[in-house]
């Protein structure tokens, strides 16, 4: 990667919020949001929260005390529940995934432990994901995020023009196919792998236009993007690897440290995320929901 000439993103220029306090965490993306109680948030406060989310792409709402039902209510303020795939939701809360790793588990990895955007193999992938930290280890388990709109902006006009005419192929096979048996080692996660649908493929534009901000975004990810429509594997793989490596350059990423009572919300339409598996021997418990998005388009 050649030297990145950094320009301060528009999200870090002064924005005025009357009901919440927003502090950017990096120049690329991410912000801490404080001075609010999500169980008592006014309509004006929620409008500002959504504004901050679209501007910063991932927000970390600190010092909350949410029940699972509270999390469901907050999720529905953003829109309709997303369609979960390959993971079994809670029996009493059919749209909530219980993400837990016990201290005595032997698996050296965690659920979702690779750079990805949620469920891009779906016709309408999630617009937003909400993840609430119920029981957090004293250290470790940070989540990393990448700004795919900023990565696209860095590309040369010629490369942008080339990519905008391409469609990327997405499939759950690498993560949930018959060869993804490592999922079975996550002892306290009900994950289905090797089903008939794990071979399904779906194409989306490689460069999409964000439906709310209008910004162009690289809509690919290492976990689910398997190729480029119309190209042979030996042609598409080097291009995808270049873009994957570009997107995770330090200038385009942030890393969030969890603490108990934090709710993270991120915009899947313009970000990747990856949890760090560095808390072996310690318990971590989270609750996760998604918000249904639109079919990606140019």
UniProtKB/TrEMBL annotation:
Where does the record place the TauD/TfdA-like domain? 22-290
Q: Which UniProt keywords apply?
A: Dioxygenase, Iron, Metal-binding, Oxidoreductase
UniProt-listed Gene3D superfamilies? Clavaminate synthase-like
What Pfam family does this protein match (any one)?
Answer: TauD
GO molecular function: any one? 2-oxoglutarate-dependent dioxygenase activity
- Gene Ontology CC annotations of this record: cytoplasm
The answer, when asked if Iron is one of the entry's keywords, is: yes
Q: Which residues cross the membrane?
A: none
State the family it belongs to: Belongs to the TfdA dioxygenase family.
| Protein name per UniProt | Taurine dioxygenase
Q: Which organism is it from?
A: Pseudomonas pohangensis
